[in-house]
Specification:
Length: 205
């Protein structure tokens, strides 16, 4: 950033483009160090413009697919910001933008549930009914936005974007459930051979 006179976003873009330019060299060499059944997690930057404005991450995903990796996108939405329907719709739109750009199976996670003081504030948005969302949105927006609200809810509902998986790091079952959703998306473990355990038959009394 200092050398090129770039700000934080510009520096990040420069780094991501540098990665893209070296996908066939550096990244391929790194990926060759892993086995076929290894489970890799790429923690991506949170700047939405990397998913919606430039093709860097999409090209990164396509490179992984060419290397025969099963890939899915995991979108984390901070549950502490899920206090009203407008923020929920905003989060859905950001997730949908990434989904369309990357063209990947997607798992949407409501993260940091362990930090939420009032669970009721977010439970209404875990799997809400479209009519509930539309009603809440119309109450918070001016009447002239009624048609826009209806279109937004239909878009969210049409892309099955109204389903979020809650993640509470204090609960092992919550972590296991999230992992199971991701495993299902990438079909992890489906090619593994069935292991048969030998055991002695029980003695008849």
């Amino acid at each position: 950033m200092e050398e090129l006179g770039l700000g934080p976003n510009g520096g990040l873009m420069y780094c991501m483009e540098h990665l893209e330019d070296n996908l066939d060299d550096w990244l391929t060499e790194e990926l060759d160090n892993f086995l076929d059944d290894d489970y890799l997690v790429f923690d991506c930057p949170g700047q939405i413009e990397l998913f919606s404005h430039v093709p860097v991450l999409r090209n990164f995903v396509e490179h992984l697919k060419r290397k025969n990796f099963n890939v899915c996108g995991v979108y984390l939405l901070d549950s502490q910001f899920m206090t009203d329907v407008t923020k929920f719709i905003s989060g859905c739109m950001a997730s949908l933008s990434a989904m369309i750009q990357l063209e990947l199976p997607h798992v949407n996670i409501l993260s940091k549930m362990d930090l939420v003081t009032n669970k009721k504030d977010v439970e209404d948005f875990l799997n809400p009914e479209p009519q509930f969302l539309l009603s809440e949105l119309n109450q918070r927006m001016a009447p002239q936005f009624a048609k826009l609200n209806k279109a937004l809810i239909e878009l969210v509902d049409g892309f099955s974007m109204v389903s979020f998986v809650p993640l509470d790091l204090r609960k092992e079952r919550s972590i296991q459930y999230v992992l199971a959703q991701i495993d299902n998306c990438i079909q992890y473990g489906e090619d593994a051979e069935v292991k048969i355990k030998d055991f002695d038959p029980e003695d008849d009394d």
